[in-house]
Amino acid sequence: MATNPLISPFATVSSGDNHLFAAIDLGTNSFKLRIVRADPTTGRFLTLQRLKEPVVLVSGGNNNTAISSSAQSRAIESLRNFQNIIHSLNVPPSHLRLVATSAIRESSNQSEFLQLIHETLGLQIDVVSGYEEARLTYLGVLQFHPIYNHTVLTIDIGGGSTEFVIGFKGDIKFGISLKLGHVTLTQRFVRNNATDAMREHIRAVVKESGLIENVLQQKIDIAVGSSGSIRMIEKAIFLGYSNDLVNEIGLLEGYRRDWKFTREELRVLVDKLCEEESEVEGGKVYNRKGFFKTRSAFIVAAVILLEEIFGLLEIKEMEVSGYALGEGVIAEKLAEFFDGFDLNANARWRSILRLASRFNNKKRMTSAASCASIAQGIFRGLRKWSEIDDQQKQVVLLDDKDLEYLEAACLLHNIGLITGKKGYHKRSYHIIMNGEHLHGYNTEEVKLIALLARHHRKKFLKPDHDSLSEFPREMKQKLRVLCTIIRLSAALKQFQSLSFQDVELSHSHEGFKLVVRDTSGSPPANGGDLIPAATDVEVELRKELEYFEEVIEQKNIFYFHQICGVQLITFEVGLVLCKDQTMPLWKV
Fold first, then answer.
1. What distances in angstroms separate CA 320 from CA 51, 141, 168, 243, one per listed residue?
2. Is pLDDT at 525 greater than 50 in this prediction?
3. Which residue intervals of 413-472 are DSSP H helices?
4. CA distance 323 to 412
5. Cα(67)–Cα(70) distance, rounded to whole angstroms?
6. Residues 409, 453 contacting (CB under 8 angstroms)
7. Residue 448, C-beta contacts closer than 8 angstroms, at least 6 positions apart
8. 374 and 489 Cβ atoms separated by less than 8 Å
9. Which residue ranges does the record assign to the Ppx/GppA phosphatase C-terminal domain (predicted)?
10. Phi, psi torsion values for 555, nearest 5 degrees
């Protein structure tokens, strides 16, 4: 983003080009929002917001397909909340798509409902066919797993339907949507204690569809499950729910396992949940609610449906995708805006996403994505400075691979928090180094990423550190530069939820200027939750900025601005304070 030379002497690097994209999936049981930041030069995208709100559009009764007034009210409120978030982040309207699936597709009052949404919120909803839903889900799966060159069967169990698609190299060989959903099956069978009848119904629907013949003809290489219910099933198996051994510490002991489960493991889980279902008055069902949360009411139907699918389609093992319909919608949007967008690009980057998703919950993933966004802003500012000033090329010359390493380390820096905060940066290092998760990265690259994660806090990475002995001199210097960026980014994201568009790093003959803005539009209601005490900001950031000066070899002036509404915090690292006369100023 170019700046007016009459206003500032700094050459600014920020997010003037808005590469934020969003998708809203209007499902039967819940509405989901995805907001990503895309990099048009690499094809990578990073999820900044991933939110879900329970709506439950279907309210029981096999022949009742109308969306009730109460469900419509819940839907409007959910979409209004999503719309506020999208507006606060300035996502361009052309970068947004809303897709509706089974419940709205099958509803008898579809047109009235869509008109209400449009009149109330001004939103246009695309009601996709079952085949289109399956196709978009396959595109989403391709962004998570490096399976582009394999014949893949993708299965997505939703609240009102289940989508099946067979794909190869981005092309659809076969796709179908069957009216078998965990919500509708629960309402029709499970709540009437008729699971045997449900199994017979599932078998009849699948056999009549022609799905079995198509799957057996195509010689499937990999079966992938992509829905939230399948991810929850995998989590229950992985954490030992079937054996009453649920704990997250087990993740560290089994970190070599990578998003998959077998038919036998699924059978054991089905037996466990059905046993619990027969003991409704006991405490086990209460434990189920604690583990499966909002999915607890529908999980029995989901596991039985999936078990029947495994048997009918002769599936022995299933891989699980962290991406699904929403990411498929976004991938297609990116293809519209970026020429040459490649569905198979950055296969190794997907292994970073899988590992981060494996150990982080949604809150920690959002925090890690925020760290990566801030780091990218700082990186680009440094890169521009080093490219413009020939003398600085002797200090550091950063390239696209360095940015990839930095973003990877940001996404993985907090995975060690799975077992607690104390020493988590060391656990993050060991998981990255010992898990064989990062496919496509060589040994040196894996260690580089692990070291950045290890040294994002506590002890700074010194030039003579033993871990650097095997790296050449130039890479050692790059490592230390990247280390200063991740440390500064991790410190900044502690104080406020930031996205890439909020960060600017610029340089002139006067020095560096780091500006961090809050785009929420208003200060916190209590006046204190968003911005910590100025002294806390100073202690944390001054230390990291001093490291920055040491590594970059620039004894320059730094300014830190944090804006929330009309508030601004500014402090100096050097000797001179440059006041911004356009806003109130508090010197730390």
1. 19, 9, 17, 21
2. no
3. 424-434, 443-454
4. 18
5. 8
6. yes
7. 405, 471, 475, 479
8. yes
9. 348-506
10. -85, 65
The Cα angle at residue 54 between residues 136 and 103, in degrees rounded to 5 = 50
**What is the DSSP pairing of strand 96-100 with strand 162-168?**
unpaired
Six-digit token string for 468? 């650097």
Pairing of strands 511-517, 503-508: antiparallel
**Segment 296-329, tens digit of pLDDT:** 889 999 999 999 999 999 999 999 998 999 999 9
How many residues are present in the chain?
588
- The Cα–Cα gap between 19 and 150 comes to 30
Coil, strand or helix at 495 = coil
Residue 494 near residue 543 (C-beta atoms within 8 A): no
Query: What is the rounded CA–CA span in Å between residue 264 and residue 262?
Result: 5
Q: Beta strands 222-225 and 317-320: pairing type?
A: parallel
Give me the DSSP letters along 528-588: SSSS--HHHHHHHHHHHHHHHHHHHT---B-BEEEEETTEEEE-BSSS-----TTS--EE-
Could you tell me the pTM of the whole model?
0.80
- The pLDDT confidence band at residue 519, using thresholds 50, 70 and 90, is low
Structure confidence by residue, pLDDT tens digits, 199-222: 999 999 999 999 999 999 988 999
| Dist CA 153 CA 155 (whole Å) | 7
What is the CB-side half-sphere exposure of residue 175 using CA atoms within 13 A?
21
Q: Which of 45, 19, 31 is nearest to 125 (CA)?
A: 31
